[in-house]
Amino acid sequence: MLGRVLVLSTSAGAGHLRAADAIEKALRIRGLASEVQHLDVLRFTNNVFRHLYSKAYIDLVNKAPEVLGWLYDHFDVPGRNEKVRLAFDRLNTVPFINFLNKFQPDVAICTHFLPFEIISWLKSEKKVNILNAVVVTDLDVHAMWLCRYFEQYFVALEETKFHLLALGVPESKVTVSGIPIDPVFAEAKDSRAMRRKHGLDEDRFTILVSAGGFGVGPVEHIIEALSGLTRPAQVVVVCGRNEELRARLTGVVPRFTRTSGVEFQPLGFTTEMDELMAASDLFVGKPGGLTTSEALAKGMPMVVINPIPGQEERNSDHLLEEGIAIRCNNLPALAYKIDRLIDEAGKLHLMRSNALALGKPQAAFTILDRLDTLRTRPEAEPVATPNARKKTSRRLAY
Predict the structure, then answer these.
(1) What is the DSSP code (8-state) at residue 319?
(2) Which of 1, 14, 78, 206 has the fewest beta carbons closer than 10 A?
(3) pLDDT tens digits for range 22-49
(4) CA-CA distance, 89 to 174, in Å (whole number)?
(5) Could you report the per-residue pLDDT of 206-229, keeping only the tens digit for each?
């Protein structure tokens, strides 16, 4: 048993929250915790700090992605501004620290580096005795995730583990679990049955577009590009909670269908993404950590479009390297690239096999199993990171 468990995330991008939701769901399925709470740590902070961590990030993604990429690379140096950042975060998370002292958890599972860092500092001061674990929610690990007082890292790839070991993290403290996703993605579902359920043609090549990360204008361009497909196809476009986008697409897709013969189905928010993935042959979208992990679990080949500089570019590099994805930086070429994939059945089959091989649909349960075994161990000693302050430890680029 894990005792009293806090699952700690932040609303700085949906992926951190979704990973935490998956862990919380797995905890309740297994019944491993006497009490479990999932908290957004930013709720314990002031408006300015909350804006800096969440809205400022979204603004950079939408308005200045090249600045975000520069910041990502600049701070991907172990130890850079560590003391200043910790002092700033401590000052702004006092209510969260007070909550920890009141709740007294036995285990903290962090899906963002902010709570991981704060608990690490509290452990260094011997102010708490908490099993401190972190789940890295991208395929790669950034220097912001590095701390010294913890029990376990959970990462997506063997390469990510190797990177942490190179920085001095003991091998026993790193588990290649995969990124936790909802357990429903581990359930096998017949593709033809899922197409029937969602009103799709059972025999047409089916493309799933995750549109939430693009905005209204870019998605229209993607749909227009897909209307240039010369092979029979149908396209499901998931717009998430962006009702403006769904309404706009609903108005324009009949024109594209008339001129191309490609069928389009715009959808709003759905809790059946696993079924839509099971129904589809190809995924088109941004390579966010959680979305990528869901697609891998369902064995989906991917077309990556204009990844955000920083973590999405690194995720994209891994997917390309593993033979799971192709990348399209030039939308007029999108239909050409997909037509070629449709014609190359052997290549698509290999991409599916590669995706399934890399996917870890049971990641949330793997994490819980590892933590269950760690509960019998004594409190962690600080982890030495001998390369942490050497510039040679920085990966300059892919």
Answers:
(1) H
(2) 1
(3) 999 999 999 999 999 999 999 999 988 9
(4) 25
(5) 999 998 655 545 888 899 999 999
Amino acid (one-letter) located at 292: T
Distances (CA, A) of 318 to 98, 182, 305, 311: 40, 22, 15, 11
* Domains contained in the chain, CATH given: 3-181+362-393 (3.40.50.2000), 189-358 (3.40.50.2000)
What is the mean pLDDT of the segment spanning 167-195?
Answer: 96
Strands, E, within the chain: which ranges?
Answer: 3-9, 33-40, 107-110, 131-135, 152-155, 174-176, 205-210, 233-238, 263-267, 282-285, 302-305, 325-328
- What six digits make up the tokens of 221? 């361009």
Q: Which amino acid is at 279?
A: A
Report the predicted TM-score, pTM, of the whole model to 2 decimal places.
0.91
Sheet holding 263-267, edge to edge: 263-267, 233-238, 205-210, 282-285, 302-305, 325-328
**What is residue 103's DSSP assignment?**
H
**Amino acid letter for position 42:** L
Within 111-230, strands assigned E span 131-135, 152-155, 174-176, 205-210
Is 179's pLDDT higher than 90? yes
pLDDT digit string (tens) for 99-158? 999 999 999 999 999 999 999 999 999 999 999 999 999 999 999 999 999 999 999 999
Going edge to edge, which strands form the sheet with 33-40?
33-40, 3-9, 107-110, 131-135, 152-155, 174-176
Q: Are 232 and 261 in contact (CB under 8 A)?
A: yes
Unique residue bearing structure tokens 């390309």: 320
CB 217 within 8 A of CB 245: no
